[in-house]
Design brief:
The two termini are 24 Å apart. By secondary structure, the protein is α/β, with parallel strands linked by helices. The strands form 3 sheets. Strands 1, 2, 3, 10 and 11 form a 5-stranded parallel β-sheet that branches. It has a 4-stranded mixed β-sheet with strand order 4-5-7-6. The relative contact order is 0.18. Helices cover 38% and strands 16% of the residues. It has a single domain, classed as TIM Barrel, CATH 3.20.20. A hairpin with a 2-residue loop joins strand 8 (187-190) and strand 9. The protein has 11 helices and 11 strands. Helix 2 packs parallel to helix 4. It has helices at 26-39, 44-57, 67-72, 74-82, 102-120, 142-148, 200-205, 208-220, 245-252, 258-268, 278-283; strands spanning 5-12, 62-65, 86-89, 126-127, 153-157, 175-177, 180-184, 187-190, 193-196, 226-229, 270-272.
Length: 295
């Protein structure tokens, strides 16, 4: 029996790139920036680990590369591309899109695209907002701006409301907004309740059995499968941000579980990047974003 297909995505950023409220202070940001200069932590060894893990399994992924990462580790981006991974853009910096004006976002996107294209020789076709920081109310112009700069798809849809991001009623299937195909992350739906399990902290916190069951349930419901991870999550010993309370707990919970879970799933599904599956995703779109039901 053929293994189910899934989308594997990697938000390629450094250890300090996060948008917790505790980090909003200018003093805290300055302290973090000084720590970055002093530590010289090599995040590119984690992108190399990604290449190795996926290469062994014959899997490919979409790598949403942050412009700041591309400037620090240009050879790492080239190695990801050479290993067969799609290079998309995560924007120029890890700033929240909904805090930008439309004009500011236009320049931000232009820089992010350029930082990636300069290294790869190809303009990226995909975009993901840092911290899923887009929504219909504060960034209604998003897809128009993406289209103007040659982006074909957006993977910034997180269809669960959390304290930091997400939209409660977002579609669970891919859908078109203008000419942009929007591809949501996979979530569980149980008795009308949506539960995230396949991305970042949720992937780390969820038991492997739950992740496996959630992905297979999505297959039965003909929903696309998508896993989202970050380079820092492959190394439990990476540096720590000055966080306290639940934000610290969530950001660093069960880091040691990432690689074993990923390794197991690499053997159970056939993984590829988004651009590679674009035609298939297009066939699975709903007629309108209001079509939320999974079945």
């Amino acid at each position: 029996m053929q293994k189910p297909r899934g989308l594997l995505t990697f938000d390629v950023e450094d250890w300090e790139h996060a948008n917790f409220r505790q980090l909003d202070s200018a003093d805290v940001r300055a302290s973090v920036a000084e720590s970055v200069r002093e530590r010289r932590y090599a995040m590119d060894r984690n992108t190399d680990a990604w290449i190795g893990l996926l290469g062994t399994a014959g899997a490919r992924s979409t790598c949403f590369v942050l412009g700041e990462f591309a400037e620090r580790y240009p050879d790492a981006v080239r190695r990801l591309q050479a290993a067969g991974h799609e290079i998309a853009t995560h924007g120029a910096s890890h700033d929240l899109i909904y805090r930008m004006s439309r004009t500011e976002f236009r320049e931000y996107l232009r820089r992010g695209i350029g930082q990636v294209a300069e290294l790869t020789g190809q303009a990226p076709k995909g975009f993901r907002a840092p911290s899923w920081s887009v929504d219909p109310v504060r960034t209604p112009w998003l897809c128009e701006e993406l289209e103007l700069q040659g982006i074909q798809y957006d993977s910034s849809v997180f269809p669960v409301k959390t304290p930091l991001f997400g939209e409660r009623d977002s579609p669970l299937r891919p859908y078109r907004e203008g000419k942009i195909l929007r591809v949501p992350v996979t979530v569980l739906t149980l008795a009308g309740l949506r539960l995230p399990f396949s991305s970042g902290a949720f992937f780390r916190l969820a038991p492997l059995a739950m992740i496996r069951w959630g992905l297979r349930r999505a297959v039965r419901l003909r929903l696309p499968l998508m896993v989202v991870l970050h380079p820092r999550e492959l190394d439990p010993a990476h540096p720590r941000l000055p966080l306290k309370g639940w934000e610290r707990s969530v950001h660093y919970a069960r880091l040691e579980s990432t690689v074993p879970k990923l390794t197991s799933l690499l053997g159970e599904f056939r993984w590829s990047g988004i651009l590679e599956e674009l035609a298939s995703l297009e066939r699975g779109t709903r007629e309108s974003p209001s079509s939320n039901s999974p079945a």
